TrEMBL record:
Domain GFO/IDH/MocA-like oxidoreductase positions: 133-257
Pfam (any one): GFO_IDH_MocA
Gfo/Idh/MocA-like oxidoreductase N-terminal domain segment(s): 6-118
Coiled-coil zones: none
Name of protein: Gfo/Idh/MocA family oxidoreductase
Organism: Collinsella ihumii
InterPro entries, per the entry: Gfo/Idh/MocA-like_OxRdtase_N, GFO_IDH_MocA-like_dom, NAD(P)-bd_dom_sf
Amino acid sequence: MNELAFAVVGTSTIADSMVDMIHQCSCARYRGSMSRDAARAASTTERLGGTTPYTSIEEVCRDAAVDAVYIASPNALHVDQALACIRAGKHVLVEKPLAPNERLACLVFDEAAAHGVVALEAMRSVHDPAYETLRAAVERIGRVRRASLRFGKYSSRYDEVLAGRQTNIFDARMASGSLMDIGVYCVAAMVHLFGAPEDISCTPVLIADAENEATGGVIDGAGTILARYPDKVVELSYSKISQDLLPCQIEGELGTVTYGGVSVPSRASVRLRGQAVRGAWTAEAQSTGDETEDLALAACDNNMCYELDNFCACVAGEMDAARYRDITLASLAIMDEARRQAGIVFPADR
């Protein structure tokens, strides 16, 4: 596999984490970072061991030494930056969500196909082998009837909202909010495990209305999506304004799989049900002879390594990127409908 020279768009902590993985990957090499602030671009590139800082996406596109671009800018900028790189013949690995909506994601994928390059969403959970271990465990618990996938952590940026100040993480103009920033992990995991549902209903927790200038209009801080399948129901819970301490759970007729961390799976187990107890409403026990087994998940300090490895494999023609494209598009279609029900509108939707 040939080594890919990467330019990185953005100077956030997530961008630093990807550069760390690039340095550890035999198929990738870090060239430099882009920031509109020339001093920041230069200092970040030097700090991270690169050679060439950039102050615009045009500079990145003109650099013939760049093979691939990792885009970790605000959500609303992803599509324009990805299209510019694609049209310059660069492969693109775009932070989640790849686009504000399904329509624009289709445009990115279509342009990538037309220009013979790879476009991939950097959705870490979809590439983490831990989900293959979970999938194998799910096959042991019989027909799945219910699942609860959840992710909630309090964002310090919410303090800015409470103070009436603008922050990109809670701004409709930036195609952000709780669903797009953190709920997307739950949606992608559901699609990865079960495929797309027949329909969904979304109950959001809105933290701003259409008149709020600081947030660019209606925006969510938390929410729940109920996804209906022919034989099961899946609950997705997400929040950036509170902490969720419960594990994810997948319930089958023969047992239950639990695990922590929908984006970085950990502490997983499968409990196979024994004999059901009649009249269990009078006692704590619901069944006897249950068997619980801890699941061995691949240990990894930073599971962004898996999406990087798969991206390089797709560029080398060793892996088909279509399966990941389909998950991205199905996930965005779900989120488009959830936002429609919540009344959350981005400029890109118009």
